[in-house]
Design brief:
Length: 212
């Protein structure tokens, strides 16, 4: 599998979203005066990443259209504070072991996962820290920008939902509620827990359900 990335401010192993030999120079907070210049550098880092050739070198496919609108409007200050701005999405750290990272930037094989395991989701745009790289632990949050009321802290369920990508190559529209039922107690949220028998979020191969 491509690496989900695991290292702050554009460092760490080469990964799906960008070249880590380029990104650290451009991974920082910004102002409206210099954000476009910063994005030129981040786009170049993407184009040298592991998946760019498969995406036609089109960095715009990594940006949710609604995120693009909010980032220049109602959530501009949060957007400018993101170190990594080239993607609205994050990859599941389970691909490389979560907190028990595989050595030397290694990852598990796609055949090590169940087809329904969740590979990618829309990052919680309310916390710029979650954009310190392009990979997260599930409990670090999912966006509610699609549907529901307006979310300002993303710790309150306003009935939102997010697009998620599965290992099998399919996409789903997953509710905030369902996502955090799978996250379980790690979320710090008061959500009724109906954790599925097979946890598609905490899916490190060979680990027990929900394990690291």
């Amino acid at each position: 599998m491509p690496h989900p990335s695991w290292g702050g401010n554009g460092g760490g192993p080469a990964n799906w979203a960008y070249d880590t030999s380029i990104m650290p120079t451009f991974a920082r907070t910004a102002t409206m005066a210099n954000v476009d210049e910063q994005m030129v550098g981040q786009t170049r880092a993407f184009q040298n990443g592991q998946l760019a050739n498969y995406l036609g070198n089109a960095a715009k496919v990594l940006i949710c259209p609604k995120d693009a609108v909010e980032s220049r409007g109602s959530k501009k200050s949060k957007y400018l504070a993101r170190p990594i701005k080239v993607t609205s999405y994050t990859w599941n750290g389970s691909i490389s072991g979560l907190t028990s990272q595989l050595p030397n930037g290694k990852t598990y094989k796609v055949t090590d996962f169940r087809p329904t395991n969740i590979l990618q989701w829309e990052t919680d745009e309310n916390d710029p820290f979650y954009f310190n790289d392009a990979g997260n632990q599930p409990h670090e949050g999912i966006s509610q920008r699609h549907g529901g009321g307006r979310s300002e802290d993303n710790r309150t369920n306003v009935g939102g939902r997010s697009a998620v990508g599965l290992i099998m190559g399919a996409a789903q529209n997953l509710t905030f509620q369902k996502f955090y039922e799978m996250v379980g107690p790690r979320s710090g949220l008061s959500v009724p827990l109906r954790i599925e028998p097979a946890n598609d979020l905490y899916c490190v191969p060979g680990k027990p359900r929900g394990g690291y």
